[in-house]
């Protein structure tokens, strides 16, 4: 038995859609680990394989020496440690109570 190219493409499209749809929060991390999570302020579907997530973190949220940002899904909530990490990015951001932070993150799945 052989799986057709069309069936493989359908399976890939289904997995991509499910993964993109499962992203629910951003995680701000320090060298010590997860610090803070927040749901997106806005999600724009650019295409079935591409979404733009906007997160606004106020001056009272997520303060510290940020070393990483991650998007979580698959049951992730604002409770630290929940769900599955989908994508991650190393950063160097000093955030304190004198500034807010807007993160605009475009996620695209390509072959």
**How would you state the average pLDDT, rounded?**
92
Radius of gyration: 16 Å
Q: Decide which structural class fits the backbone.
A: alpha+beta
| Amount of helix | 10-25%
Oligomeric nature of the chains: single chain
Strand content: over 45%
Biggest sheet architecture = 4 strands, antiparallel
Order of helices and strands: HEEEEEEE
Helical region count?
1
Cα distance, first to last residue?
25 Å
Tell me the overall shape.
Answer: elongated
Low-confidence stretches: none
| E-strand count | 7
Query: In which order are the strands of the major sheet placed?
Result: 2-1-5-6
Fold and architecture overview:
The chain has 111 residues and is of the alpha+beta class. The chain has 1 helix and 7 strands, in the order αβββββββ. It has one helix at 5-22; strands at 25-30, 33-38, 42-47, 50-57, 64-73, 84-95, 101-108. The strands form 2 sheets. The protein has a 4-stranded antiparallel beta sheet with strand order 2-1-5-6. A 3-stranded antiparallel beta sheet has the order 3-4-7, with no helix packed on it. Strand 3 (42-47) and strand 4 (50-57) form a beta hairpin. The protein is elongated and about 60 Å long. The mean pLDDT is 92.
């Amino acid at each position: 038995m052989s799986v057709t190219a069309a069936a493989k493409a359908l399976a890939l499209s289904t997995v991509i859609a499910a993964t993109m749809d499962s992203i629910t929060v951003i995680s701000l991390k320090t060298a010590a680990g997860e610090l803070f999570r927040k749901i997106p302020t806005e999600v724009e579907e650019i295409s079935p394989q591409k979404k733009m997530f906007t997160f606004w973190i106020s001056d009272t949220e997520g303060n510290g020496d940020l070393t990483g940002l991650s998007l979580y899904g698959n049951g992730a909530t604002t409770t630290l440690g929940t769900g599955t990490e989908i994508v991650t990015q190393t950063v160097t951001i000093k955030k304190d109570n004198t500034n807010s932070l807007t993160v605009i993150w475009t996620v695209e799945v390509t072959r």
